[in-house]
Amino acid sequence: QTKAQLSHYRYAILLQDEIRKERHELRNNYFYIQTLLAEKKYDALDAYMQDVIGSKLSSIGEVQTGNTLMDYILNEKIREARKKKLKLCTEILIPANLKLSEDSLCTILLNLLDNAIEASLGEDNPDIRVFIRCTQGYLTIRVKNRISFDVLAENPALASTKENKSQHGFGIKIIQNTVREQNGILNFDSEGGYFSATVMLPCKFS
């Protein structure tokens, strides 16, 4: 219970920081637009609206599932992937009244996405796909990332390949432990040029 509360507080703080940043940037945008209007620099204003404001609006709330925490994590990871020039697509269909441990959801989703992003950094044509849906009393999360070799054939235990192994490779273990705690199902497969991690968690509806 304490762990879950700390997780909620942590993400509440992150959300508040994000809102403060957005407000500060919005004020700056507003004053700059006022300046361009006052100086009658309409061409500059048009370019600013299209390049800066347009791109900003297109990235706000790209994923809206109805679950605040899930939306925040997914949108943050989409922005992170794009900054690293990685393609990340989502296909999500879940009910708004989904009941599930947010702490477990946060832990699993973050580690799955972090693993996929890290694994995609060395790929020539990176592609990450996220599927989330509810079927037959389970929330199913599947994260796929393109691979240039059969990961499971060469590393069936999915052990860390980094030099300092004692400080890395915890992501998979954390996912495994969290899924086990929630009486869920975890499966890894490698086919069709993609590595896939699939998690199924029992869920209820209010």
Summarize the structure in short.
The chain is 51% helix and 22% strand. The chain is built from 6 helices and 7 strands, in the order H-H-H-E-E-H-E-E-H-H-E-E-E.
Describe, in plain words, how this protein is organized in 3D.
The protein has 206 residues and is α+β, with helices and mostly antiparallel strands. 51% of the residues lie in helices and 22% in strands. It contains 6 helices and 7 strands. The protein has helices spanning 2-38, 42-59, 68-83, 102-120, 151-154, 170-181; strands spanning 87-93, 98-99, 127-135, 138-146, 185-191, 194-202, 204-205. The chain has a 5-stranded mixed β-sheet with strand order 1-3-4-6-5. A hairpin with a 2-residue loop joins β5 (185-191) and β6. α1 runs antiparallel to α2. The longest helix has 37 residues, at 2-38. The protein is globular. The two termini are 21 Å apart. The model is unreliable at 164-169 (pLDDT under 50).
Rg (CA only): 20 Å
Would you report the number of β strands? 7
* Biggest sheet descriptor: 5 strands, mixed
Structural class: alpha+beta
Residue share in helix = 40-55%
SSE succession: HHHEEHEEHHEEE
Task: List key phrases describing it.
206 residues, 6 helices, alpha+beta, globular
Could you give the topology of this structure?
Elements: H1 2-38, H2 42-59, H3 68-83, E1 87-93, E2 98-99, H4 102-120, E3 127-135, E4 138-146, H5 151-154, H6 170-181, E5 185-191, E6 194-202, E7 204-205
Parallel strand pairs: 1-3
Antiparallel strand pairs: 2-7, 3-4, 4-6, 5-6
Helix pairs in contact: 1-2, 1-4, 3-4, 4-6
